[in-house]
Amino acid sequence: MWFPDIFPILPFLLPLAQAHINRQDVVSQFNPVRTAYFNSTPMQVGNGDFAFGVDVTGLQTFQSFATMSSWGWHNFSLPTAPGESSVEDFRGLDWWTHGRLVNYNQPNPSQNLISNWLIQNPQRINLGRIGFWFGEGANLTQADISAKNQTLDLYSGVITSTFNVFGSEVSVKTAVDPASDTVALSIKSKLLNEEKLGVFFDFPYPKFGMKFDYPDVGRFDNVSSHVTTLKQTNNAAQITHTLDSTTYYTTIEHPGSIISGPLPSSHRYILKPSPDSSELDLTVNYSPTKFSPSNSTDAQSILKYAARGWSYYWESGAFISLPTSVPEAKEVLRRTILSQYLLAVNGAGTTPPQESGLVNNGWYGKFHLEMIAWHLTHWRLWKKPEFLNKSVPGLYTRFLQTSKDRAKAQGYAGAKWGKMTDPSGSSAPGEINSLLIWQQPHVMWFAELEYRDMPCNQTLQKWDEILHQSAEYMASMAWYNSTTKHFDLGPPMYPVSENTNPNATINPVFELAYWRFGLTVALNWKRRQGQNVPRTWTNVLNNLAPLPIVNETYPIYEGVPEMWIDPVTFTDHPAMIGIYGLLPPTPDVNLTIVANTATKISEIWDFENLFGWDFPMLAMNAARLGRSEQAIKYLLDVNFDFDDVGMPIGGPRVPTPYFPGSSSLLMAIACMAGGWDGDGGSHFPEGWDVESEGFWRCL
Ligand SMILES: *[C@@H]1O[C@H](CO)[C@@H](O)[C@H](O)[C@H]1NC(C)=O
Ligand SMILES: *[C@@H]1O[C@H](CO)[C@@H](O)[C@H](O)[C@H]1NC(C)=O
Ligand SMILES: *[C@@H]1O[C@H](CO)[C@@H](O)[C@H](O)[C@H]1NC(C)=O
Ligand SMILES: *[C@@H]1O[C@H](CO)[C@@H](O)[C@H](O)[C@H]1NC(C)=O
Ligand SMILES: *[C@@H]1O[C@H](CO)[C@@H](O)[C@H](O)[C@H]1NC(C)=O
Ligand SMILES: *[C@@H]1O[C@H](CO)[C@@H](O)[C@H](O)[C@H]1NC(C)=O
Ligand SMILES: *[C@@H]1O[C@H](CO)[C@@H](O)[C@H](O)[C@H]1NC(C)=O
Ligand SMILES: *[C@@H]1O[C@H](CO)[C@@H](O)[C@H](O)[C@H]1NC(C)=O
Ligand SMILES: *[C@@H]1O[C@H](CO)[C@@H](O)[C@H](O)[C@H]1NC(C)=O
Ligand SMILES: *[C@@H]1O[C@H](CO)[C@@H](O)[C@H](O)[C@H]1NC(C)=O
Ligand SMILES: *[C@@H]1O[C@H](CO)[C@@H](O)[C@H](O)[C@H]1NC(C)=O
């Protein structure tokens, strides 16, 4: 449901728009085509909250790619050991923090069972598998299918797949309804008349303890751990799937067919079409509540809705084309267009996406609150706020109480946002999880970007309490050192680069700059509303520690041993460079020092161990420093790759896909097309043709 309610009337409004780029032509150049099986990633259709990943047959026939949603989650049963049998039993660890013991949400070695349970639960589930059935006893393998040819039409959100089997052609169109979690299938083949083609449905159980579960999700062989039941009515069937305390419904509308099953020792059901037609249209809806079939959701209607929703998507908001003949431009544009498609499928839901979206599971399917600025900011810069709107700020409102409880339990004021999170708002235990702080100013970031779009009291009020509580925490955790007369951040803490000693980490460059940015926005928020500004906030802002400098460069944090000498200081995220390009420069940022740091990074950083958003962050910095060629080099670095359908490759440290790579790419493209405050316009290299329309300037 990622399109606005007004979308049905939009086709009439479109001709009035100022668009001058023929967007459909640009987009369609990059329609992915597959003619072979692909082990690592599916082609996908979806709506931001729900996605269906298919193999080259257009279904999940031979490769059980996943069907995933924002709402499908499961808990394994709690441990039963004494003192570890409930969530409330969990006690974390106490660490010294400026002279007092503070309890952190970290795994407790004397409570391994409940610590691990809290990390591993809930996990996001694969809702089910849909594949071709080739007749009684056929038992085909991948090799029996020939002449495979599959195209994803990006502009209409439809995958068309054709192949040959038993000497006959099969073709199928696959789409997802923009407004419901429904897959539409339109199948054509003579084999339907011959009872040699049907469709199977299968249901997995989650794998236990799988932090990363890819390329497929769940297992189909743990049959006795879960239950499915079938209820048939005329032309429809509903399969209820119960896995422990999770239950959801699969509703299949299939005119003229019957479903049988489950097959012995499985949860597999078979739809055998009646032999009087060579066409089979069906819809499959997945829902946490019982879904009532209606005549508005037949497959052909959904194919039309998908086309309308997607044309609205492509024609609204900003757009860029790079008609330059240099091959680099074509590849940058390919990645940009495919990222736009995949983020609307995987990253526009009612909760922020996990790093692997709705493709497979990373970190048990949970989403990370420090990452959501990467996942979601591009929606606003590309002027598509309705895709961001569903999760933010509603998510922060929902999590406010648990975040206030978290701050209070540690003796701080305000609200401390969690880290590795699920829809209930609980944050998974972890040493790094509990000691990261850069998620905290994200609310100011989102609020300020929204205020540019809608500078009105409604925006101010909507964000006021969230900003207030976040700023209260930020002011309260900064620690006053009476010798230096500065407020310090940490220790203990982890900065963005998660490989420092937390008990020694103090005043990291990125976090200091982000604290300044965040508190400044919070103060302005109060002033804009004519309210008093809390003195503690001003005091911390005015006396925050200065950005540390080492040999005319910005280091990771103040006093980091052997910066630029010990490789550990140049292997993880080079977040200090984010203070110019990602963040707007705060008054104390020295651009000579920034430029020196950028040069040093380009010379010695360990790029092989970087991933995803590091490269667009470096590109934004380079572009803003006027080094456009270097920006493009970063965007096309060999360690920052996208596969044939545009899935961002994870690299040596995370599995594929890693969607922060896509969303940060779109952010960098927006900044390079629209420029920054005080430095607007194109920041692409000299000689590139850039046609762009509608971007916001970056902050
Ligand atoms: C899993 O258990 C936690 C803790 O009891 C609860 O908050 C959450 O809602 C449960 N989630 C699911 C999907 O059952
Ligand atoms: C940090 O200090 C705490 C005590 O406050 C200690 O328990 C912990 O092991 C230390 N962590 C590291 C990584 O040194
Ligand atoms: C189906 O084929 C596979 C691979 O050829 C084989 O391992 C399996 O036993 C066959 N199953 C049946 C039911 O014939
Ligand atoms: C695949 O299908 C497309 C669209 O129908 C067609 O243009 C293309 O030639 C086909 N490719 C192959 C290898 O058959
Ligand atoms: C099957 O599921 C049960 C939970 O119901 C779990 O304890 C068991 O480990 C699973 N088996 C396998 C092989 O994953
Ligand atoms: C179902 O179709 C009938 C006849 O076309 C129409 O009047 C009715 O509104 C439709 N129902 C829904 C839910 O779209
Ligand atoms: C965002 O959502 C709010 C309601 O939550 C709505 O008032 C506003 O119009 C939406 N903005 C956009 C651009 O969709
Ligand atoms: C205060 O800052 C000084 C100078 O950086 C440092 O030596 C001292 O350890 C700090 N005090 C505390 C208690 O952290
Ligand atoms: C916005 O709020 C301010 C302060 O509360 C008030 O003075 C102003 O009139 C309001 N503006 C509008 C347009 O309502
Ligand atoms: C600063 O540069 C000097 C001269 O190159 C070098 O000897 C020293 O180790 C550097 N210090 C740090 C902290 O990098
Ligand atoms: C910025 O840093 C350079 C190099 O250390 C220095 O020469 C210059 O004075 C600094 N600029 C400001 C405004 O502090």
Automatic annotation (TrEMBL):
Matching Gene3D superfamilies: 1.50.10.10
Signal peptide: 1-19
Domain of life: Eukaryota
Tagged with keyword Signal: yes
Entry's Gene Ontology BP terms: carbohydrate metabolic process
Coiled coil (residue ranges): none
Keywords: Glycosidase, Hydrolase, Signal
GO MF annotation list: hydrolase activity, acting on glycosyl bonds
Matching SUPFAM superfamilies: Six-hairpin glycosidases
Name the UniProt record assigns to this protein: Six-hairpin glycosidase
Source organism: Glarea lozoyensis (strain ATCC 20868 / MF5171)
Species classification: Eukaryota, Fungi, Dikarya, Ascomycota, Pezizomycotina
